[in-house]
């Protein structure tokens, strides 16, 4: 299905024609100097212009396969033609709507999220991003239990809003004075003894866990861990919150990863992929214990743009595409392809690629070097692939193929990955440092030896 032809706009045309160096300089001056400089210094100063499917076209003329997907936002690809068509049709009739009133899209998406999910008697509250959805989950748990304490995992990431950032990694919480050790308790993931000790006082409102922790390097839950945590929560009168912002929506082969662990959470949070990368929307699915405040005071939580009419229409189409038999068959085939391909790469470099953490198409590649994934990420960039290292464990590369990747693209991607892994192993052996090159922040970094451009480069 082709993307429908849309009228041109001179503002968009001017922006797309801006030189990359100018965008980087303006970003450093007016937007985010630290982040802009970081990617330039890392040798991956990506500025995305045109994008479609799983290909990104940099303003400097480079083309890369996207295996980062912005945390799963682009599960169905960039500018998926069906989603573009749905949004375009919706814009003929709708805007963001009015959050005070019932709306066709909100009602329909809420029904679909409840009936397709693990909380069949739930209610849905919408937001714009995952952090807002986590905030709502924790507020609801505090209301339901009359308690304030929240347990999360060390190295967790739940967003950057108020309660979400306080529950996440201290790197982000401390900077904005959001740490409250009396209320937000962090325990090691997969450590049942630590979880039991933290719950022993029967004074915890919620245990908040990413089903697969992303920013800390896709640490996989040990068999039985999540189910036992859920049992402990029930015994302690604590609500279990499953953060499925990155692990949900078909990435592991199941619509919601938590169902693979036999857990019915009290609250489930989703976002990112629900937007289809087209229009912001997130959702908090509340079980009966957490949803009672909606009966008492439906105005207790307000989000002007949360659950907008446009966002809900896009979310409905995203869920429909994700649950199609053809999509699930494609995911199953890709799981086999990438499992086999990455296993072979690891066999070729047993002392370098030392661990594959995988559940479906959620994949973390751990390298035997403190900055190993950064070395591989740069080599991949030089070979036409964008994959990001884990912010809290730069040994681990986040490798997330899209749900609709073709066999041809999958094979080519694995070929390029094998080359990048081999070259990065040589970089590590020779002591190559990821030193900044600030001489020309607008220029593409000098190619490393043995690199080759993506064949679609313009």
Question: How would you portray this structure in words?
Answer:
The structure is a single chain. Helix 5 packs antiparallel against helix 14 (309-322). Residues 435-458 have low confidence and may be disordered. It is built from 17 helices and 15 strands. With 458 residues, it is α/β, with parallel strands linked by helices. The relative contact order is 0.16.
Which structural traits does this protein have?
single chain, 458 residues, alpha/beta, seven-stranded mixed sheet, four-stranded mixed sheet, 17 helices, 15 strands, globular
Strand content: 15-25%
Mean pLDDT: 92
Number of strands: 15
Distance between the ends: 23 Å
**Cα-atom radius of gyration:** 22 Å
Unreliable stretches (pLDDT < 50, length at least 5) are 435-458
> Biggest sheet, open or closed, and with what strands and sense?
7 strands, mixed
Question: Which structural class matches the secondary elements?
Answer: alpha/beta
**Widest beta sheet: strand line-up:** 4-10-9-8-7-5-6
Residue share in helix = 25-40%
Number of helices: 17
Coarse shape: globular
């Amino acid at each position: 299905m082709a993307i429908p032809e849309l009228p041109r706009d001179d503002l968009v045309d001017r922006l797309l024609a801006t030189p990359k160096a100018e965008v980087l300089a303006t970003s450093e001056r007016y937007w985010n100097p630290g982040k802009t400089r970081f990617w330039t210094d890392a040798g991956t100063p990506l500025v995305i212009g045109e994008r479609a499917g799983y290909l990104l076209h940099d303003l400097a003329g480079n083309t890369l396969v996207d295996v980062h997907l912005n945390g799963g936002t682009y599960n169905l690809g960039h500018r998926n033609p069906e989603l573009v068509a749905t949004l375009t049709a919706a814009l003929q009739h709708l805007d963001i709507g009015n959050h005070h009133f019932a709306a066709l899209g909100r009602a329909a998406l809420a029904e679909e999220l409840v009936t397709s999910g693990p909380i069949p008697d739930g209610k849905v509250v919408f937001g714009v991003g995952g952090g807002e959805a986590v905030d709502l989950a924790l507020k609801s748990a505090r209301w339901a239990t009359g308690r304030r304490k929240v347990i999360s995992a060390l190295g967790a990431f739940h967003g950057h809003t108020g309660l979400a950032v306080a529950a996440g990694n201290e790197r982000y919480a401390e900077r904005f004075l959001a740490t409250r050790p009396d209320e937000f308790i962090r325990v090691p993931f997969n450590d049942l003894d630590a979880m039991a000790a933290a719950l022993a006082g029967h004074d915890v409102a919620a245990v908040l866990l990413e089903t697969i922790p992303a920013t800390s390097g896709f640490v996989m839950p040990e068999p039985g861990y999540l189910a036992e945590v859920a049992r402990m929560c029930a015994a302690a009168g604590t609500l279990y919150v499953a953060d499925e912002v990155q692990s949900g929506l078909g990435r592991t082969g199941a619509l919601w990863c938590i169902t693979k662990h036999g857990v019915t959470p009290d609250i489930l949070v989703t976002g990112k992929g629900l937007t289809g990368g087209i229009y912001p929307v997130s959702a908090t699915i509340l079980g009966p214990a957490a949803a009672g405040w909606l009966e008492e005071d439906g105005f207790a939580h307000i989000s002007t743009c949360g659950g907008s009419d446009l966002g809900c229409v896009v979310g409905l189409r995203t869920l429909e595409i994700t649950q199609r038999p053809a999509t699930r068959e494609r995911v199953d085939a890709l799981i086999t392809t990438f499992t086999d391909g990455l296993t072979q790469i690891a066999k070729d470099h047993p002392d370098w690629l030392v661990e594959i953490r995988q559940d479906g198409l959620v994949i973390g590649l751990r390298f035997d070097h403190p900055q190993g994934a950064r070395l591989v990420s740069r080599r991949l960039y030089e070979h036409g692939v964008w994959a990001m290292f884990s912010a809290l464990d730069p040994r681990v590369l986040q490798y997330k193929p899209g749900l609709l990747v073709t066999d041809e693209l999958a094979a080519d991607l694995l070929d390029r990955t094998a080359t990048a892994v081999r070259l990065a192993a040589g970089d590590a052996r020779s002591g190559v440092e990821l030193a900044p090159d600030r001489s020309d922040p607008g220029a593409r970094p000098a190619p490393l030896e043995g690199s080759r451009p993506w064949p679609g480069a313009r």
